[in-house]
Every structure is written in C-alpha cells, then in structure tokens.
Write a structure and sequence with these properties.
The chain has 254 residues and is α+β, with helices and mostly antiparallel strands. It has five helices and 13 strands. It has helices spanning 8-23, 28-37, 65-70, 231-237, 240-246, and strands spanning 40-41, 47-53, 57-59, 89-91, 94-100, 106-112, 115-122, 125-140, 153-165, 176-179, 184-189, 211-218, 226-228. Strands 1-2-5-12-7-10 form a six-stranded antiparallel beta sheet, with no helix packed on it. A five-stranded antiparallel beta sheet has the order 9-8-11-6-13. A two-stranded antiparallel sheet has the order 3-4. It is globular and about 50 Å long. The two termini are 33 Å apart.
Length: 254
Amino acid sequence: MGELQASSGSIIYRLALRKHATDAPEPSSIQAIIKTLRLQKHPEGGYYVETDRDARRVPSPFLHRDAEMQMGSLTKGGKAQDESSPRTTRSASTTIYYYLTPGTPIGHFHRNKGKTVHTLHKGRGRYVIIHGDEVQQTKENSEGYLSENGDGKTLNKARVESFVIGHDLGKGERLQWIVEGGKYKASYLLPDSEGEEGRGNEGDGESAEGLLISETVVPGFEFTDHNFMREEDLESLVTEEQYQELGWLLPRHG
C-alpha cells in the first residue's frame, strides 16, 4: 500500500488545494486546453469530454433483477424492459479526457461498475483506491490509530492503495493504471516536479499545466453505473486513522 501518513507539508498542500478549488482562476494556458479540447466541468471535480462511444452494444454485465428493481429499471408492472433497452445493454466501451487543474484540483471519491483503463498525457497527480472487495485484518489501538505492536482490537477493513502518476518511471510514477469495477477511487493534483526530499513534500511547488489523462471504460460508461462515496461508506471501509487521512477527498455537496 502506498503511504497515507500525513506530513506537515502534505496537510498544508491539502488546505491549499481546497482553497484553490473554490477561488482560483484558471491560468490562461489551462483555459486554452479547456477550450481546445472542449472540456466541461465534471461532477466528480475537474473537467472532461467524451471522445469516443463505441457504436456496438453488448449485454450489460450489471443486470441483476433485484438491483435493477431498486434502481427503477423495471416497469411499474414488474416486467423487465426490452432487451434493446439502455438498461440491459451498454456500449462496448467509452473514452474521455479527464483534466484536473489548479482551479479544480480534486477528483472526489466515486466508483464505477465497469473497468477503467487510465492513460497519462501530462502532469502529475496522486490516486487513492479503496479495494472494498479485498478485506484485510488490522489492529487499532484505543486512540483509533493502527497498532504498531499488534495490540488492540481486530478490524476487518478494505485494502487502501495510493500511488503517484507522472513521467518519472525511475521513481515509481505510473503512466497507465487500471481500476476494476466496484472500487472507490479519488485523485488530486500534484506539483509538476517532486521536491528534493521525496514524495513527502507534495506541497513544494505548483502545477502549471494540470493533470490530463484519458479514461476508457469497459463496458461503456453510463451515469447509472456510477455513484459517489458517502461519509458512512468511508467510515465502514477504512480504519479511523485512514478516515482522518482520506476524509477530505469525500464529495462536497451543497
């Protein structure tokens, strides 16, 4: 698991990101990219545009009667919709550009039912993935922190993964990463270059170009296959220490 421990630098950086997310105008160079790519604001944070939607339709692998009834996909009479319904099929794949910028630097926790293949084009960022389907036993002390000596109560919590995306492969940064369906993920912008003392200095410097990636979802994305993480979801999936570390990435409503 990538490091989730907060340093003073990273805490300052998070506060700066939150401030920028509400009141920072976009630099002219970033405005030019938004205009050229015809990007629009994404409800997760950042900007996006759909660049491809495969015309081929495939049977939806998510079609389970009970779940679909809860989502209102069955008719009021209780009969399943026609096989050509958008509820029962999906595009074979969809692809978007996704762009985090200094003015909207956070992609808040969410999950998709389909597999997502991410490809980096420019910039740096950090991704956090909560593997809710991979439960690990952890020990937590009375103060809510992970126990260093093995004492404390046993908790069954999800595996949390964190990594940097960027072009410095020698330092472990990633150019491509795949997130299977059903896993919560969040991301945030990092400075264009790493601080001299390593990744703990995520607050050193600024991002002049933002973080531009492509995402290909298989089968194709539909908003009915997407949901945001709630506060109670995060509380149930991670330890108290991890909750305190990751809570700032929850969606901000209202």
